[in-house]
Design goal:
There is one protein chain. The chain is mainly beta and 197 residues long. The longest helix is centred in the middle third of the chain and has 10 residues, at 76-85. A hairpin with a 7-residue loop joins strand 5 (48-56) and strand 6. The model has no long low-confidence stretch (mean pLDDT 92). The chain has one helix spanning 76-85, and strands spanning 2-7, 25-33, 38-39, 42-43, 48-56, 64-71, 101-110, 113-117, 120-125, 129-135, 147-148, 159-171, 174-177, 183-187. It has one domain (2-187). The radius of gyration is 16 Å and the shape is globular. It is built from 1 helix and 14 strands, in the order ββββββαββββββββ. Strands 1, 2, 5, 6, 7, 8, 9, 10, 11, 12, 13 and 14 form a 12-stranded mixed sheet that branches. Strands 3-4 form a two-stranded antiparallel sheet.
Length: 197
C-alpha cells in the first residue's frame, strides 16, 4: 500500500513520473507485507518493510531523498535480504527507483503494524508513519475497486485506487500531514521473481 502528498488522483503514475505533483514535491511511503516468499535460501513469510521517499514536483527528474524501515521482528538474514530487494543490488522491481535517489538516508529496524481488510489497508510505525487508505468502489464490477492498469509502477502494473483517511509521515527528514480523504493512495498485490544481480 502507499499514500502520498498528492491530491487524489495523483498525476505521477498516469503520466509515468513526467508531470508535476500537486505540490512542489511528492512525499510518499510504500508499505509491503510479504505473505510468502524467499530470497535465496532465506524465507521471507510475514516480513514487512516500508520505503520512504521525497522527490521534486516532477518525480522523473530524480534528486530524491529516501530511507528504508524493516520490521524489527525480521531476523538479520531477512533484513539483509530486504535491504537487497529494496535497492538496485537485488535487481528487483524497486531497482527502478535507484537512479532517481541521490540522498539515501539509511535503513532502520522498527516494529511495523500492517492491516488489510477488504478494501481498507493501514500501516503504522510509531513516531514515523500512520497511514490508512480506503479503496474506491467500482460501479461496474461489484466487490472490486476502480483501478489504474498498464502502469510502470514497480509493485504491480495494476493498482487499486484509494484515498487516504490518515496520512502522517515523519521519517528520514521527510514530513507530511495530510487532510482526511484528500490525498491519493494505491494498493495492490505483488508477486516478484527473478535472479539477483
Amino acid at each position: 500500500m502507499e499514500a502520498c502528498s498528492c491530491d487524489f488522483l495523483c498525476p505521477c503514475v498516469p503520466k509515468n513520473l513526467s508531470t508535476p505533483a500537486t505540490h512542489d514535491f511528492c512525499k510518499v511511503a510504500l508499505g509491503f507485507e510479504i505473505t510468502s516468499g524467499n530470497f535465496g535460501g532465506v524465507a521471507l513469510d510475514g516480513v514487512r518493510f516500508v520505503m520512504f521517499a521525497q522527490s521534486q514536483a516532477v518525480m522523473g527528474t530524480g534528486n530524491w531523498k529516501a530511507g528504508l524501515v524493516i520490521d524489527a521482528s525480521a531476523s538479520d538474514a531477512q533484513a539483509d535480504a530486504i535491504g537487497l530487494i529494496a535497492t538496485a543490488a537485488g535487481n528487483g522491481p524497486l531497482a527502478m527507483f535507484a537512479p532517481l535517489i541521490s540522498d539515501f538516508r539509511g535503513v532502520e529496524r522498527r516494529p511495523i503494524e500492517f492491516k488489510k481488510t477488504g478494501k481498507s489497508v493501514s500501516i503504522k510505525i510509531d513516531g514515523m508513519l500512520d497511514q490508512a487508505i480506503v479503496g474506491i468502489d467500482s460501479m461496474t464490477v461489484p466487490g472490486e475497486c476502480v483501478a489504474l492498469d498498464n502502469t510502470a509502477h514497480p509493485v504491480n502494473k495494476r493498482l487499486n485506487l484509494a484515498t487516504a483517511v490518515r496520512n502522517v509521515i515523519d521519517a528520514f527528514g521527510i514530513t507530511w500531514r495530510g487532510e482526511p480523504d484528500r490525498n491519493n493512495g494505491h494498493f495492490a498485490p505483488f508477486a516478484w521473481q527473478g535472479e539477483a544481480a
